[in-house]
Target: Trafficking protein particle complex subunit 9
Amino acid sequence: AQEVLIDPGALTTNGISADTSTEIGRAKNCLSPEDIIEKYKEAISYYGKYKNAGVIELEACVKAVRVLAIQKRAREASEFLQNAVYINLGQLSEEEKIQRYSILSELYELIGFHRKSAFFKRVAAMQCVAPTIPEPGWRACYKLLLETLPGYSLSLDPKDFSKGTHRGWAAVQMRLLHELVYASRRMGNPGLSVRHLSFLLQTMLDFLSDQGQ
Model:
């Protein structure tokens, strides 16, 4: 058999070729950051033409958002997410719906859209107790609702509600507090429910209607 000789100078201590010309050639064939996103857009447009490719289309959107988040291109990432919201995935189980909304929430948080993130987490919370679920998950619902508080500029510390320093949309905040009251009561924790209701009266009294009071 013919002996194959290897030039020791051609290898580094890691066994990788010291000749960088091949690496340079490989780099030339790599897509630029802009080209990567264009390829994602092209793929998603193709997937969108097929009724049964919804899951693949959604996966491509999610991957594109993560790439754009690394590139700090939040506005473009939000466009991919907006598309992801309307992708038809057919008949999903309640658990799959919760997972979908939770993922959307995480991705919006990743690109700094905190209020959008809170909105989809709240949708996920409501999905945990949908009428079609035989055993509604009130504990999971309550936990998810708590996680939406920062997105709605809401704190459960009364000290953060000194006179004239209110932040955020009071109407949405009151709705969220009502949901915490209801969820804690359905969890079988009336003490926690009263605590949230007392907090609502203490901090939101000026925003309540006469009927609401």
Notes: Residues 1-25 have pLDDT under 50 and may be disordered.
